[in-house]
Design the sequence.
């Protein structure tokens, strides 16, 4: 299943709804390009909704990390929403689960961004 | 197999089928398929550099109570001892370097053998009931 990404705005937060696989190749590139595009447009509060992401490999994990550091470097915030069990477990074993701010409810996630 | 992304994807599917045939449950199958995917990425990308002149060999075998999967490339070789620990604090936020770690996380044993040229990665998982 190829990756798809769509964006929407909720209370000043850009929610990126991702679906499919974030893997080496198309999936990783789509994520990278989406983040780059959003930052280029000045969107610095980014919530990645991974509820429909069925699979992620090491390359995809690398892109999540890269997205996090890119957003942070520009003074922004990036959070994750609705991890599937597979993605959750991978972030746990790679010790990245506590690096990201992970939420399982959209309203709570949006509210967690700083208000500035 | 050719050194392409398509080969990586195909190998992952083959691994899932081999694991299913061997009687592994869904969780184990997912881990085995992921380990093979990561080994193939190592071979195709890091080993062979996507070169159309270099091949990757993949084999599956049930032997001695184990599922044994072998991935070989024709590249310059990798020393797994020189790959930084991705869990070390200074490496945690690096974009790459988690492939070998993930292979080891999902398989019972991962072996590297230097070839002339290339690398052979052997992934071993004990069969259910063994």
Sequence:
């Amino acid at each position: 299943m190829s990756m798809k990404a769509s964006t929407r705005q909720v209370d000043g937060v850009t929610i990126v709804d991702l679906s499919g696989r974030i893997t080496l190749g198309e999936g990783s590139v789509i994520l990278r390009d989406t983040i780059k595009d959003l930052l280029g447009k000045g969107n610095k509060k980014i919530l990645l909704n991974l509820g429909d992401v069925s699979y992620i490999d090491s390359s995809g994990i690398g892109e999540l990390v890269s997205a996090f550091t890119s957003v942070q470097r520009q003074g922004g915030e990036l959070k994750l929403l609705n991890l599937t069990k597979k993605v959750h477990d991978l972030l746990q074993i790679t010790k990245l689960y506590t690096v990201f701010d992970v939420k399982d409810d959209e309203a709570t996630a949006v509210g967690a961004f700083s208000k500035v | 197999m050719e050194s392409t992304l398509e080969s990586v994807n195909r190998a992952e599917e083959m691994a899932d089928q081999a694991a299913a045939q061997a009687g592994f449950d869904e969780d184990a199958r997912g881990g085995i398929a992921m380990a093979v995917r990561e080994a193939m990425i190592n071979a195709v990308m890091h080993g062979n550099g996507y070169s159309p002149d270099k091949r990757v060999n993949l084999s599956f075998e049930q032997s001695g109570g184990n599922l044994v999967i072998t991935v070989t490339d024709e590249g310059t070789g990798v020393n797994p001892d020189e790959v930084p620990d991705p869990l070390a604090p200074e490496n945690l936020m690096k974009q790459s370097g988690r492939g070998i770690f993930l292979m080891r996380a999902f398989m019972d044993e991962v072996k590297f053998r230097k070839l002339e040229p290339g690398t052979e990665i052997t992934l071993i998982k004990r069969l259910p009931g063994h």
Chain A has one domain: 4-108. DSSP finds four helices and five strands in chain A.
